[in-house]
Specification:
This is MADS-box transcription factor 6-like. By secondary structure, this protein is mainly alpha-helical. Among the domains are: 69 residues, Transcription factor, MADS-box (SRF-like, 3-Layer(aba) Sandwich); 55 residues. The chain has 4 helices and 2 strands; from the N terminus they run H-E-E-H-H-H. Strands 1-2 form a two-stranded antiparallel sheet. The longest helix has 68 residues. The chain starts with 13 loop residues before the first helix and ends with a helix.
Length: 187
């Protein structure tokens, strides 16, 4: 009897998700290998994990298979290479614009290059900085509270240790006095 159908949705538990990824990845790599051997097919498989780790299989070598794929799919007759280049150019332009905006925002947050900003933009910047300052203070306070708790625990532990040492000292002192008394009474 089979296991039944598995509902295809993201596994929420991180550990279970990693275990499932590892098992299914290995199964997929095995199937790719079997397909290449049994059917004499040229197979290439590329997997990127959620952590960005690369797993790959190429029956005839990954580079050779990818070059063959490019020759088949990117023919100049249908202008797909030209369209691909144009798409990449547009993507690069968007990313440059985004990067410049992020740099400008960073300079503003550092108090630099504020001249071109109007009053409303300056007020928004001030709110952002106040929010960031509040979060930093909150985190600092949390760390200080945790450190104080640790110090209190250490203080209690050292106090207990001190009490134990005093009791031990008193016992030793009483024993030595008793020993002295014994020795002096024998004389």
């Amino acid at each position: 009897m089979g296991r039944g159908r598995v509902e295809l949705k993201r596994i929420e538990n991180k550990i279970n998700r990693q275990v499932t990824f590892s098992k299914r990845r290995n199964g997929l790599l095995k199937k790719a290998y079997e397909l290449s051997v049994l059917c004499d097919a040229e197979v290439a498989l590329i997997i990127f994990s959620s952590r960005g780790k690369l797993y790959e299989f190429g029956s005839s070598g990954m580079t050779k298979t990818l070059e063959r794929y490019q020759r088949c799919c990117l023919t100049p007759q249908d202008n797909s290479l030209e369209r691909e280049t144009q798409n990449w150019y547009q993507e690069v332009t968007k990313l440059k614009t985004k990067y410049q905006a992020l740099q400008r925002t960073q300079r503003h947050l550092l108090g630099e290059d504020l001249g071109p900003l109007n009053v409303k933009e300056l007020q928004n910047l001030e709110k952002q900085l106040e929010g960031a300052l509040a979060l930093a203070r909150q985190r600092k306070t949390q760390i200080m509270i945790e450190q104080m708790e640790d110090l209190r625990k250490k203080e209690r532990h050292l106090g207990d240790l001190n009490k134990q040492l005093k009791i031990k000292k008193d016992r030793t002192s009483k024993q030595s006095k008793a020993l002295e008394f014994c020795c002096s009474s024998r004389k």
